[in-house]
C-alpha cells in the first residue's frame, strides 16, 4: 500500500492531504474516501482475471500500468483473452459498471463506439447452455456450449458394450470353479461350445457375425482360456451340465446350442440330458457320442497323434489338418499358434471318450449338422452319418472349409446358423 493511501479501498492519494481544522478538537484525522470497498481487507491483486477491481486488474495486465493514462479493464481483458485464445464467455473477472455520481453525466462505459447494454443473448439450458460472464459485456463471441459427448465424439470407439462389438466379459462360479464367458447382441439366446484345443476366442468372428441375429453367449470350458481348472476328473456329461448351469445363471429358460468338434459332443450330451430347455441344436464337424473318432477315422487319428508328438517342428502340418493348406499359407500365424499351444492330453482323453448309452437316435431337438468339405480330422461322411441317425436333422456341407470352420469361414457359418434359427423359431 502506498504511503497515504486510503486504508479502506487502497486508492492512491497524494502523500500530503489537506488537513481540516476543528476549533474545539484541533486537527481532524483524514476521513475515508467513501469508496465502494470500505473494508480493511485487501483485494486479491495476484490473479488479474479474478481481481475484484477491474481497473486494478487492467493495470496489472498491461505494461503501462504506472502511467497516467490507464486503459480500461475492458480493453485489457479483451487484449489478454485474444492473446491467450480463451473464450471470452469463460472469463471469471467481475466487470461491474461504476456508479454514476450525482449531478454528473458520464460517458457510457464499454468498447469505443458501443453502448453498454445488458446481455441480450437468449438463455439456453441443457446441452446448449452457454457460459455467461465478461464476454456478454464485452460483446465478444460467447463461449463454447457445455454439452455431453455425442456420437461424433466417439467415432474412434468400437460399437457395443465392453471390448469388441457388443461384448462384455464376465465370470460366474459353476460348481466351485470360475468360468469366463462373453455376451454379444440381443434376441434369442444361443450358446457356442468350443472344441478340445480352442477357447472362446476362436468364436470371436462368428459371434460378432451372429450378434446381429441373436444373443450370443461364448464361454471357456474347465481348464481352458480364462476359466479355472478343477482338481478332480470330469467327463463330457459334466461339461454339458456346466453349459446348462451357465445359461440358467444368465436367466435363459430356453436356448439354442452350437458345438464344434468336441463341443459338438458336449452339445449332444446337453440335448440328451435336458431336451426341454433346447430350442435348436447345431453340430459342426463332430461325431456321435457312442463312437470314438479313432474307430470312425483311424488314419486321421493316427496322423494327429504323430503330429502332436512332433511339436513344435510339425506345427505347420498340424495346422493344415485343422485348416486347408491354402488358408494356412495366407495365415502363417496359425502354425505359430499350434506351436505355442500347451499340452492337451486331458482334453484329448475327453475327445476319446465314448458313451454307449448316449445315442444320437434319442435326440429330439431340431438339429442342423454342418461339415467342411476339406475337413481332415472329422470327414464329411462321419458328420453325414451322424445327421442320418438324428430323427429331426438336416445336413449341410460347407464347401472349401476345413475342420475349424468358425475361424476359417465365420461369415458362411453365421449365415447357415442364422437361417436355421429363424426356421426353428417359427416352428416352435
Automatic annotation (TrEMBL):
InterPro entries: AB_hydrolase (IPR050471), AB_hydrolase_1 (IPR000073), AB_hydrolase_fold (IPR029058), Peptidase_S33 (IPR002410). Keywords: Hydrolase. Residues 27-49, 93-167 are annotated as: Disordered. Belongs to the peptidase S33 family. The lineage of its organism: Bacteria, Pseudomonadati, Pseudomonadota, Betaproteobacteria, Burkholderiales. Coiled coil: none annotated. GO terms for biological process: glycerolipid catabolic process; proteolysis. Residues 189-408 form the AB hydrolase-1 domain. The keyword NAD does not apply. This is Alpha/beta fold hydrolase. GO terms for molecular function: peptidase activity; triacylglycerol lipase activity. Residues 96-108, 125-134 have a biased composition (Basic residues). Gene3D superfamilies: alpha/beta hydrolase (3.40.50.1820). Pfam families: Abhydrolase_1.
Amino acid at each position: 500500500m502506498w504511503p497515504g493511501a486510503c486504508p479502506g479501498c487502497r486508492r492512491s492519494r497524494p502523500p500530503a492531504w489537506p488537513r481540516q481544522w476543528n476549533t474545539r478538537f484541533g486537527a481532524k484525522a483524514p476521513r475515508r474516501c467513501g469508496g465502494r470497498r470500505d473494508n480493511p481487507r485487501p483485494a486479491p491483486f495476484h490473479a488479474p482475471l479474478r481481481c475484484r477491481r477491474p481497473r486494478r486488474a487492467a493495470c496489472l495486465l498491461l505494461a503501462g500500468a504506472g502511467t497516467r493514462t490507464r486503459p480500461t479493464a475492458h480493453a485489457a481483458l479483451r487484449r489478454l483473452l485474444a492473446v491467450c485464445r480463451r473464450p471470452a464467455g469463460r472469463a471469471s473477472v467481475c466487470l461491474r459498471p461504476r456508479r454514476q455520481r450525482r449531478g454528473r453525466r458520464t460517458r457510457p462505459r464499454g468498447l469505443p463506439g458501443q453502448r453498454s447494454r445488458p446481455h441480450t443473448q437468449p438463455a439456453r439450458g441443457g446441452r446448449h447452455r452457454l457460459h455467461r460472464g465478461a464476454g456478454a459485456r464485452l460483446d465478444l463471441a460467447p463461449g463454447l456450449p457445455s454439452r455431453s459427448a455425442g456420437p461424433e465424439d466417439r467415432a474412434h470407439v468400437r460399437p457395443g458394450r465392453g471390448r469388441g462389438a457388443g461384448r462384455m466379459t464376465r465370470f460366474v462360479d459353476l460348481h466351485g470353479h470360475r468360468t469366463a464367458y462373453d455376451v454379444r447382441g440381443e434376441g434369442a439366446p444361443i450358446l457356442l461350445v468350443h472344441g478340445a484345443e480352442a477357447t472362446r476366442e476362436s468364436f470371436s468372428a462368428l459371434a460378432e457375425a451372429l450378434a446381429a441375429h441373436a444373443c450370443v453367449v461364448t464361454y471357456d470350458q474347465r481348464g481352458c482360456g480364462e476359466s479355472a481348472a478343477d482338481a478332480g476328473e470330469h467327463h463330457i456329461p459334466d461339461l454339458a451340465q456346466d453349459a446348462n448351469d451357465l445359461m440358467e445363471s444368465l436367466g435363459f429358460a430356453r436356448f439354442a446350442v452350437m458345438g464344434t468338434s468336441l463341443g459338438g459332443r458336449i452339445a449332444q450330451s446337453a440335448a440328451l440330458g435336458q431336451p426341454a430347455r433346447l430350442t435348436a441344436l447345431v453340430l459342426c464337424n463332430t461325431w456321435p457320442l457312442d463312437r470314438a473318432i479313432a474307430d470312425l477315422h483311424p488314419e486321421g487319428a493316427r496322423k494327429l497323434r504323430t503330429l502332436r508328438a512332433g511339436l513344435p517342428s510339425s506345427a505347420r502340418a498340424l495346422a493344415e489338418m485343422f485348416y486347408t493348406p491354402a488358408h494356412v499359407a495366407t495365415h502363417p500365424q496359425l502354425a505359430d499358434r499350434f506351436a505355442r499351444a500347451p499340452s492337451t492330453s486331458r482334453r484329448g482323453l475327453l475327445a476319446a471318450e465314448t458313451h454307449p448309452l448316449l445315442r444320437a437316435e434319442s435326440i429330439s431337438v431340431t438339429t442342423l449338422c454342418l461339415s467342411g468339405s476339406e475337413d481332415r480330422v472329422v470327414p464329411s461322411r462321419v458328420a453325414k452319418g451322424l445327421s442320418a441317425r438324428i430323427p429331426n436333422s438336416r445336413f449341410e456341407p460347407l464347401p472349401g472349409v476345413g475342420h475349424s470352420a468358425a475361424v476359417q469361414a465365420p461369415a458362411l457359418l453365421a449365415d447357415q446358423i442364422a437361417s436355421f434359427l429363424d426356421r426353428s423359431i417359427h416352428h416352435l
